[in-house]
Model the fold of this input.
Amino acid sequence: MVKKAVLAYSGGLDTSICIPILKEKYQCDEVITVAVDVGQPAEDVKQAEDKAKKISDKHYTLDVREEFVNEYLFPLIKANGDYEGYVMGTSIARPLIARKVVEIAEKEGANVLAHGCTGKGNDQLRFEAIFRLTDMEVIAPMREMNLTREWEINYAKEHNIPVTVTTEKPWSIDENLWSRSIEGGKLEDPGYIPPEEIYKWTVDPALAPDAQLIEIGFEDGVPVSIDGELMNGVDLIERLNHIAGSHGVGRTDMIEDRILGLKARENYEHPAATVLLTAHKDLEKLVLTRSELKFKAHVDSEWSELAYYGLVDEPLFDDLNAFIDNTQHRVTGTVTIELYKGNAYVMARTSPFALYSEELVSFDSQSINQQDAEGYAKYHGFQARHYRRFISGE
Ligand code: ARG
Done:
């Protein structure tokens, strides 16, 4: 049987050496590469394409940025997506990348799906949660072969694959519109202070300029404008990454619990995500009821865990999205944020659906008869007082 493989391809060392490995070790007759553009730097996409054209049998580059924003990032914003304090850039993109790889494999009549993830991380699980919906064979050479970096570099050189990683810059980077993650090298020591050079989207907060106000407009839970200017999602996120990044907003240095249970030291930058999630949460507080907010916090955390695990085909994920969508019709309005030296502070918010009444809450108004509250006050804590009297023997 002819073995035809489709490989999720980034242009990096691991996925590049997967091409000859799939042929030599796994007897694949043909290897087709797919690079999925989810907003990583244009030069990376171009570099992956140029490289693939030399070393794979056929290559596809798919620009899915719009779909990524509308079908994945907007639901994430509505769900206040957050896993242990991580904004989930890599995790939210993996299912989409995997689905696109499967689409190409089906179109090409392939019978093998391959990825370059190791056996230590989360991405192998996210890819395979989608890949295994098909009956195609799944091959993960990096996981199976347990290779060292040195072996990989030598193997690449033997196969005329250009190598860009060096021992001075050993960072493993994953980037998309929502976030940039930096791992590896000395960063693997959680006691090591990261050098400034790992950051590309954010300036050093200490060197950031004076404060800047920015107004984000939301409609039905998703951002639609910056300072009143309507924009599509891709442009809005790109613009905001630039503006907030110039104020040093959106750096995270954390210990993260991977799905397998391994603790990892992770560094991220995600300026737009910080601003949008901060603004969205604040607007929800203005328009949703106390009960809705309390229940939704729980729904959001379940949603985030499923998304982090890459389990987007889980029916519960659809159920949670249905609940979340139903709450978002009122999440319309504006939030004004001050960007200042690494921080994004909410300064003001407005909404036609605000459940807030200045007339009722104001110190200066007489429209609530305060004496009405006395009856409530008499019963507030009623059972607790009974209990206290009981145990003190009164
Ligand atoms: N820890 C993050 C996650 O699991 C980022 C992983 C980055 N992945 C990578 N292949 N470099 O989502």
Summary: The chain has a mean pLDDT of 96. Residues 180-350 form a domain with the Argininosuccinate synthetase, chain A, domain 2 fold (CATH 3.90.1260.10).
